[in-house]
Amino acid sequence: MITRFGSLFAGHVDLDHEGLDGTAANDRWLPDDELAGVFPKSEAIAKLMDRTGYDTFWLAEHHFQREGYECIPNILMLALHLCHITNRIKIGCGFNIAPMWHPLRMAEDYATADWLTGGRVVFGVGRGYHTREVEVFGAPLRDQDANRELFEEQVEVIFKSFNQRAFSYQGKYYTIPPPQVPYRGYELSEITLVPRPKTLPVECWQPVVSASTRALDFMAKHDIKGIIGGGAAQGGANEKVVHAFREARARAGKETKLGGDLCIGFSFYIADSVEQGIKEATPFFEENIKMFAPLGFVPGLTPEQIDAVADPKRARHAGLPTLRNAIKAGTWLIGPPEQITEQLKDVEHKYPGLEVVNVGQPVGTPQAVILEQLERFSAQVMPAFKRRA
Prior knowledge:
Blueprint: E1 4-9, H1 32-35, H2 38-52, E2 56-59, H3 75-85, E3 90-93, E4 96-97, H4 103-117, E5 121-126, H5 131-134, H6 144-163, E6 169-170, E7 175-176, E8 182-183, E9 186-187, E10 204-207, H7 213-221, E11 225-228, H8 239-251, E12 262-270, H9 274-292, H10 303-309, H11 312-315, H12 323-329, E13 332-335, H13 337-350, E14 356-360, H14 367-380, H15 383-386
Parallel strand pairs: 1-2, 1-14, 2-3, 3-5, 4-5, 5-10, 10-11, 11-12, 12-13, 12-14
Antiparallel strand pairs: 6-7, 8-9
């Protein structure tokens, strides 16, 4: 039964000349003051969500994006600030990209935020998808096997540091502590995370992207919950993935109802009619395609179509997906609030274990539209679910 709602904000600033006919993604290079506009924008969204009854405001970690699409380099620092200017809403890490961190630094920073916010920061980890980010920080991404191997080892270290009063670790990438290190009259054989999180066990979330057996079994082993859709990933839920997630839980000895331990994300736009919503939201949908198609997050495109996305003169005639296609696929919810409520009721019926849903707008949506849409959703859709909680 759906009882909790959140929203994921990947960290885009307000942009001009949007849509397939607008400025090409690689031609955007914003000044520092505009890029830093992501911080007051985050504040405004967090305050509105706190006031209107949302449960979690999710943020995404990204780096070097002078184009203005994803501009939050450190979720935990921003989360700490947002908790101090709001009253109750939780701030979710969606996600800390582990290969760009030392795992103990991430563990320390999260634990510090957990203490300073009284448990209002939700932990989350991901592997990354931008070569410009992950490879520049010295970690592999083009080699996906190496990326996954590194990520899994980092998560093992992080959970050991959270859950054990003192620990050591020996792996391919990390030996903690290093051998034969003298310290104040003795040789190190173990270390302690200081502080360990106040809230134990640590609730952790991860995006479900590849949904491979290895990935899902790893999540089940560490009791990591999954977010499907939203951000770079297509919204909505693939039924096979939801079943595979549950089966991996069962292999680890944890029985859940279908949809349990998952959050499903949707893009949405409330309007008086579907046609009005499509007309108003299409520029944002198209800007999102410009950003993510070259990264492989718009399935089914040919190399020629991906190439055309970067050219405003060709993109409109390249046969790219439309918002109408996304509605049909179930990744977008558009129309009157009563219709969106019924669509979410259908999702709830299909996945009886589902308790958490994320709703939001894609990269490119202006602050004013985000605030207006989240306000309307909280007033016109959420009560049908929240009053039962």
